[in-house]
Structures are given as C-alpha cells and as structure tokens.
Amino acid sequence: xxxxxxxxxxxxxxxxxxxxxxxxxxxxxxxxxxxxxxxxxxxxxxxxxxxxxxxxxxxxxxxxxxxxxxxxxxxxxxxxxxxxxxxxxxxxxxxxxxxxxxxxxxxxxxxxxxxxxxxxxxxxxxxxxxxxxxxxxxxxxxxxxxxxxxxxxxxxxxxxxxxxxxxxxxxxxxxxxxxxxxxxxxxxxxxxxxxxxxxxxxxxxxxxxxxxxxxxxxxxxxxxxxxxxxxxxxxxxxxxxxxxxxxxxxxxxxxxxxxxxxxxxxxxxxxxxxxxxxxxxxxxxxxxxxxxxxxxxxxxxxxxxxxxxxxxxxxxxxxxxxxxxxxxxxxxxxxxxxxxxxxxxxxxxxxxxxxxxxxxxxxxxxxxxxxxxxxxxxxxxxxxxxxxxxxxxxxxxxxxxxxxxxxxxxxxxxxxxxxxxxxxxxxxxxxxxxxxxxxxxxxxxxxxxxxxxxxxxxxxxxxxxxxxxxxxxxxxxxxxxxxxxxxxxxxxxxxxxxxxxxxxxxxxxxxxxxxxxxxxxxxxxxxxxxxxxxxxxxxxxxxxxxxxxxxxxxxxxxxxxxxxxxxxxxxxxxxxxxxxxxxxxxxxxxxxxxxxxxxxxxxxxxxxxxxxxxxxxxxxxxxxxxxxxxxxxxxxxxxxxxxxxxxxxxxxxxxxxxxxxxxxxxxxxxxxxxxxxxxxxxxxxxxxxxxxxxxxxxxxxxxxxxxxxxxxxxxxxxxxxxxxxxxxxxxxxxxxxxxxxxxxxxxxxxx
Length: 751
Fold this sequence. Notes:
Residues 504-616, 689-736 form the Neutral/alkaline non-lysosomal ceramidase C-terminal domain. Residues 516-536 are annotated as: Disordered. Residues 1-500 form the Neutral/alkaline non-lysosomal ceramidase N-terminal domain. Its EC number is 3.5.1.23. The chain is an alpha+beta fold. It folds into 3 domains: 13-240 and 275-319 and 409-529, no CATH class; 540-616 and 687-749, Immunoglobulin-like (Sandwich); 623-684, no CATH class. Helix content is 24%, strand content 25%. The strands form 12 sheets. Strands 1, 9, 27, 28, 30, 33 and 36 form a 7-stranded mixed beta sheet that branches. Strands 29, 31, 32, 37, 38 and 39 form a 6-stranded mixed beta sheet that branches. Strand 22 and strand 23 form a beta hairpin. The longest helix is centred in the middle third of the chain and has 22 residues, at 279-300.
C-alpha cells in the first residue's frame, strides 16, 4: 500500500471504494474551461497525469491538456501503490503495478468525461468557515522556528479555515460542492490492510449521502458530487490527541519525537493518537468534523463567484531552479535528495528505530551505505557540491543522481494555477507545510491584487497535484531537519523557488501574456519502461467437492441491530477483476419476498477481506530491506543490509566511505556483503502455483436495520489457462432484531 512506506502493509481487502471526483468549469461562451479532479489516492503521479491527458486528447483534441487539468490526490495512506514512473516511490511495492495505474487512469478519465458531458449553466458561490479540532501540527517545534512576527499574524500553528464552493443550477438547486482544508489522511494507521479512503473520502461519501435525491439508495451512485480536497497539509496531522510514548505513557521528546534513552532513543514508541478509540473511529470523527463545517458553509454561502475562467501552467526543472535571496544574491535549488530523518518517519508513522527526526549530521556507516547505493544505481556519482547544497540535511539517498535503470525522482514539475472568477487554485506538486503554504497564498494573493484582480480574491492550495515531490518547508523549518524538512527533496531554497515562480506566473497571467510564455522543459514520459517485479495473481483452486463461492462459515440465525454479521466463503484473488463500478459484495434485504440490495462494498458499514491458505503476512521487513531488494532486482547486485547492520554493531563493518570510491564495491564483496544475483523484470516473471484462498465479509449492522437479510459474495476465479470466470456465493437468510426498547420491528421494516 502507498503512503507509510511500510513493506509489511500489503492490502488484503477493501473497506471503502476509492473515487475520482471531477468538476469541469467553463465560461458562459464555452471558450475557456478548466478541470479540477480530486481523487482518493496517496498522491498524483506524473505517469498518471500524462496518461490521463494522452487519453483525453485522443478523444477530445486540445479541449483538455496539461495546462487546464489539475489532478489532486487526497493523500490516503490506505490506497494501492505501484502507479509511478519514478523508482523511489515503488520501493515498497517492488516495482510497477499496471492494475493500479490503469484503475486510476481509467477512473480519472471517466470522471472528467462525465463532468464535461454534464456541463450546464449555473452559479458558483463561495464561503469560508473554521473546522473545529480537525487537525494539529505534528512538527510544532519546527513551526516555532519561523519568525515570531510572522507567527503572530495567525492564531494557530495549522490552518483552520475551510474554503467551500457551492454549485447550483439556474433554479438554485445545488448539484455539487468542493472544499479545501489541510489534514493528513493518516487516521488509518499502518496496521490497516484494507483499502480505505480515510477521513476525506469518508467525509465525501457522507456529504453525498445527505444530498441524495429520491430513488438514490446506494453509496457511490449519487448524482451529487462532494469533494473534500487537500491543501497545505505537510506538517498537519489528524491525530488530535497528539503523540505519546506508548511504552511509558510519558510525553515524547519534543525535538526528535523519540522515547527512552537505552539502548538508543526510539521513534517507533512515539505515536500520535486520537481523537477516537481506534483508527476507524478516528477516521469517522475527523471526517465528520470536516463534514460539519462544509455543510454549514455550503448552506450559508452567498458570495457569488464572478469573472473569467482561465489557467496558466509551466514546467520547471526544480533540480536547478534559480532563486533570488533577500540580499539580491542568487542561489539554486539542488538535485533531489532525501535526508536521514526521512527514514525516521514521523509521529503518524515512524520508520525503523535506527533513524530519528532532527538529524543534521550523518554517520560514517550510513554514509558508506549511501555510497554503496550510489555506486550501484548512479551512472554519475554525486559530488561534494551536491551534498553541500543540501546542508544542513545529511543526504541518505542521493535520488537526483540515482538513474539506474531509470530515474528515481522527478526533476521536471508542474507549476499551475486555475482561475474561476475571483478564486485562484494553486496546484502544488507535493506537501507544503502550514507556514510555507501561508507564504505561497500570501504571495499569490498580493501579486493578484497588485495586477488588478478584485479585493475579494481568494487563493486556495490544491496539494499533491500533478506530480509528487514530497515536502516543501520554510527555510527556517528546514534547519531543524525533522521528517518534513528531510523530505524537502530540492534543498533549503525549495519553497522560495516555488514562491518566486508562482509570483512570476501570476504577473504573466495578469498581463495577458500567457500565449507567449515558455512552456518549460517537458518531463520524460516512458510508460513502456515500467518494470513490474511483484508476482502476478496466481491460478485459483478449491478443495475437492467444493465450488468457488461456497460458504465456509455461515451467518448466525439471528442478530441484534448493532451487531457485526460475518460470513466467510471459498474465494479467489480479487485482483482478477477489480469490479470498477460494481461490487464484491452485497447485503440484501428481503422486501415483500424480493431481495433488495441495501449495502455494497462502497459502504462504510461493510468490510471485505481476502487471504490465502497457509500464508502469513510478513512482520519484520523494513524500508531498507525492500530498497535493497529493488536494487538487486534492477541491477543484479544484492547488498546484504541486515548483515551490514550486524557487522556495524560488532565493530566489524569495513568503513571505507568516500564519494566516487571505485574500490568500495570490491571491498563490500570481499566482506561478503555484496554478491551477484539474477535480475528480475517483467519478461522473467513466472506465475505462482495455484492457491486456495478465502474471503470474509463483515457487515456492521445499523441500529435501524431490522428485517431479513443475506450476504452475497461476487468473485472471479482464474483457471490454469488464464481464463477468468465469475461466480457468486450466498449466505443463509438471517434475522436482524431491534435492540430492546428501540421501537423498531420487522413489520415496519417491510420484510
């Protein structure tokens, strides 16, 4: 799964569906249009954006291009991985997963086309409100490094405001809502193995449910589209109770987010919690806090959005962007690199305990490991100037140089804005911290008004848009090198570079010079170079005398509303058919003798889990393990990081760090740490042997669900020749009774 970079977090089922929600907005003459898409994913990848545009152009010509389409990921950490063209993001998934990519691309294209087909005259109104206890700052000590005078302009160390758009038809009837508010989608923690859209996805489905029209009864099938889009969430957590040391109950260390001192401070024991009793409850609570504000602002929004519809876009090489400092001198951003504290993770999800936040000096051991990596995957070795460029960040992964067999990080990124009347949407390729985002909004707003836009101009940030480049912190926050700063991949001047570029584009835009603007260097687009490594789904089998879909453990005869009904079936790998627009399960109610679908796998109340016979999930795999797995698969050279750590602990590791040290790999071979290994690529993949697998379906029975029900499973089995065959399985009928004193009965349920 994508987000936490925990290799053991391998999806085994589905809690909520992931959706792409699109709006196409055009001026009244249909001469200019823009598309804004918010979709349930960890982030947008450049591969997905470029493929979406390619397919839209094939059908619609230049109606939709890189310039007028914004794709903004929600940042759920419980979605699928493997949809990137840059290798760093595919470490935990062990390479590319074509099914993930196709699902995202197809869903996004379809949502844009539906929105475009449904264009109608209407009115947009905008409003702003505060979300109550919807987030906290997870790096508050870094925030405090920003100038006091600047901090005094704000009442909180996170954004509290939510900006809401209300879409109405000419009769004043609403048909859509878009909101922007920053909060990480880490309410679901990394122990979760079910695909889940987290708090913003939950908020969207709740809003759409409350806006249902007559006859709309199933989740995901509503005509109303409600978007809870992402903003400057970089240092913003939904775990509003804050972090605590889980081994002692004490406060974590403020600067490093660690617990204890022996044998070393441990970041894995410092964990953020809240506000609920478990991760599902916390997801629901944070969703409902956003929902409450969005509902209130949506109902009261009265400021009409008026003016033109437009867009501006430029590709920028962020590996060498020129930046002007306050004293007039010029510096440059750096080729991409991730710091030591990146590997430490944060209080929403820590990495291995060998790294901590706040690290500003490297070690000989890890610098040597870094140099081994560089020798294996860099065609040109990183220079001393490169490492100095990133200071005070000690670079752990020199990703800007890592280019074997293909680039590990992007260099060319989108800088883009959409304009809808007095609203400016700034699409940013990653996660701006709270203060970095405030600086960006202020810069754009001041320039817009200076160039003649109205005083009521509003600027929102659309985070994780178009391509993912990790984080953007202020230069003051960068000095502390907590997780967000160590993940600011283009160095200490990254945010200032973006501020100056957005300000420049706003000036060009306001002067009407967009047509003559340099589009910038085009990013590499090579979908054919993707290399899947993880095995494809195996052939399915069932025991003798059993058919696919047969029940293993059936439902009880009777439940009380509020209980959980569970049924397990002999199943098949759900990857054979992702059932886009369909469902793996149904909860059906018998109404006047006929079965009526009440819930599907799109509903919060259901959970779908799949597992293989005699298979246990890995529990002791780290990001470093899978990093060197991927390097071995790609290069044919296996470095034994576990053995290296053991040798370092004993004082036996061969410390021969040195940039460009040509004897380094030979030294590692002699120490028994590096060996040759056959490369793995898509052409050498072999299908796994046939496997027996099972499915469990859970239904959290609502308090008012009285009547007669059954649970239905829909699957698809794969035969040895590759043929995939659909099947279904059914539980027995069961009765749901009302809780004592509830006033519900089977009769008034219509059973």
